[in-house]
Specification:
This protein is mainly beta and 373 residues long. Helix content is 3%, strand content 39%.
Amino acid sequence: VDGTLANGIANGGVDGLANGMDGLANVSLEDHEDVYVYVAGGRNRGQTVGVTERYSPRRKRWERGPHISDPRGSHGLAAANGVVYAVAGGGIKSNLATAEALHAVADHASTAWVPAGAVAEARHALSACNTGDWGVCAIGGWADGNSCTGAVDFLDLRTDPTSATWRSLAPLNTPRKLHGAAGLPDGRLFVFGGRIGDDARAGPIAGAEAYDPTSNAWRDVCPLPFGACACACVDGSEQKSSRQSVDGSDERSRRSVYVATWGADNPEGNASTKRGGKDPRVGEAGALWRYDPDADTYERMCGLPLPDWYGFAMCAFDGWVYLVGGSTAGRWTGAAFRKKVDEGGESEWEELPPMKMVRRRTAAAVARAGTRD
């Protein structure tokens, strides 16, 4: 892939990540131990937390991991090359710009979160995503207490997988917060929905955008069917791990982006189930969607497994979409569900064991655990 994203290699010191984790070179991903759904940080009944938990689909259980050094909520979480990155977010006292990294290894006791640089603008209510195994992006958010930002920060891991130097890409056309974001291995990025302000009388937007790495520019694409705050993800097991462009010859799931809109079970998206037209969330409908980035179209797959579900996190791997945490019908939850989304093999929502800590405004990512050499 040519252009700003493809050619802009990050420079600078990376001692914090390289030394704090004994060097990425000491972790082998080829002889992986397992794949985990990582959930880190969030808000627990008004408190900002740094608790990390991870779910093993093979063992069907959650386990506690090391605490994030700086507790954060409404932050971004993304995984690339066996490392989980927690980016920005709302800290205990103020917004954070810092990032932290955690090696996904079989033995949690042998690792810890370590500094991984900082983005240009402190903010929360952002989204983070990966571009295959070679990059991590932090997109949008609520910056200074009274406005959204369109800032986009990029961590390039191609020539140096221990890099902790973030740099800025072209900003969003429409600054927003509480939106969904997803990236493809060819460098394309997508954002969906969110809010453009903090006015309780105004609902979320439907607008969506796509980033072209060859031109370092965003363009508007087909909006969501209605305004909604959202999560988004791509199935990492279906992506190519190389730095080459997708060649177009693979099955649809390899190019699909999954979007989960927060809200009530309202398939039509034209009326609130709580207070009719007086509810500023009118139009929001909790649902799972499949977005085709080449056709620029959406397919509604199903509703959400919980009523009035907001503030949950999302990730996908091996043909499964996972939803975790949030609040349902006004109550905090540690619930976790997954759904098979492979074409021709779709399933109903499967309820998983709940997280040990209930939390909302958390974030999730899938990482393959390596073993230390």
